[in-house]
Amino acid sequence: MTDDTSPLTGLRFSKGHGTGNDFVLMADPDGARPLSTEQIARLCDRHRGLGGDGFIRAVRSRALPEGAAALAENPDAEWFMDYYNADGSLSEMCGNGVRVFIHFLLTQGLVALEDGGELSIGTRAGIKKVARTAAGYRVDMGPWDFIHPSHAAERGVDSVVEAAGLAEPRPALSITMGNPHTVVALEETADLAALDLAGTPAVIPVPPSGTNVEFVLPADPLVTDDVGHISMRVHERGVGETLSCGTGACAAAAATRFWAGAGAPDAWSVAVPGGVVGVRFFPGADGREHVELSGPAVMVAEGVLADGLLQQL
Ligand SMILES: N[C@@H](CCC[C@H](N)C(=O)O)C(=O)O
């Protein structure tokens, strides 16, 4: 192991993914090494950098201004997930990222998680509680909500979305999971396959902070053994099409369950191009309905950036 201050080497990094949603991770316990927007974009560049859908900096909550709110909410939240999209823009939350973040902290020996135990981590969308499962991790993602509550409650639709490959604009519903999502209902398998998400879909009207767009196809039948099944493709804000989006899967399940009406199940299986994640709705201790996300987390590499690489890239 090399010291990350060695004159011969640059910053230490790890690379990991959750259902194909991949991230570059760095430990910066004292918050001494923030990266600029440009540096993050260079790092996440798939041709000239390491490549990733996002960059995650692990910082002790006490070392970040945002961490003060996290510690006030839960003094056990020692670590803060400082999350950025591939273009260097900041996001409030990342569902796949939380699992990979915890896995990173564990593999680096920065935290310990006993069997049956839980870890609280700080994010810009509040504290997330994470537990280990046989297949990875499950995360209490907190409550979901409509972005435009009055429109949503009235019609279950608050916008339309246009995208290349869609024959016509489709109705959509915008949901917040701490970060914004717009869920588009599709009807045919061919519609999902025909989508071209190389460009950014047009959401009309777009939520105030932009949005991630999920195109969702219900399975036929939608529900088996009290579990709802959907397939989804996603265009992420600040990234483009990705193989998976955890908060997007939660939003997609929430919208589909809302559209399905009374009697729709609480448990959902969401198939994404990179795998499958589980979503479950349950009553939170705060009296609101919470969303639980479960899925795998995999570390694929560790390394050291060449000296000056962030400047040269
Ligand atoms: N892939 C993430 C979401 C990452 C942030 C998103 N692009 C945004 O800007 O909100 C996930 O797994 O949730």
Automatic annotation (TrEMBL):
Residues at the site labelled Could be important to modulate the pK values of the two catalytic cysteine residues: H181, E236
Protein location: Cytoplasm
List of residues binding substrate: N21, N85, G95, N96, N179, N212, E236, R237, G246, T247
UniProt keyword annotations, A-Z: Amino-acid biosynthesis, Cytoplasm, Isomerase, Lysine biosynthesis
Primary enzyme class: isomerase
Molecular functions per Gene Ontology: diaminopimelate epimerase activity
Entry-linked SUPFAM superfamilies: Diaminopimelate epimerase-like (SSF54506)
Active site: C94, C245
Sequence similarity: Belongs to the diaminopimelate epimerase family.
One Pfam family linked to the record: DAP_epimerase
Subunit structure, as described in the record: Homodimer.
Matching PANTHER family: DIAMINOPIMELATE EPIMERASE, DIAMINOPIMELATE EPIMERASE, CHLOROPLASTIC
Full protein name: Diaminopimelate epimerase
Protein purpose: Catalyzes the stereoinversion of LL-2,6-diaminopimelate (L,L-DAP) to meso-diaminopimelate (meso-DAP), a precursor of L-lysine and an essential component of the bacterial peptidoglycan.
InterPro entries: DAP_epimerase_AS (IPR018510), DAP_epimerase_DapF (IPR001653)
Name of the gene this protein is made from: dapF
Coiled-coil segments on the chain, per record: none
Enzyme Commission number(s) from the entry: 5.1.1.7
Pathway per the UniProt entry: Amino-acid biosynthesis; L-lysine biosynthesis via DAP pathway; DL-2,6-diaminopimelate from LL-2,6-diaminopimelate: step 1/1
Main location: cytoplasm
Reactions listed under catalytic activity: (2S,6S)-2,6-diaminopimelate = meso-2,6-diaminopimelate
Gene3D superfamilies for this protein: Diaminopimelate Epimerase, Chain A, domain 1
TM annotation in the entry: none
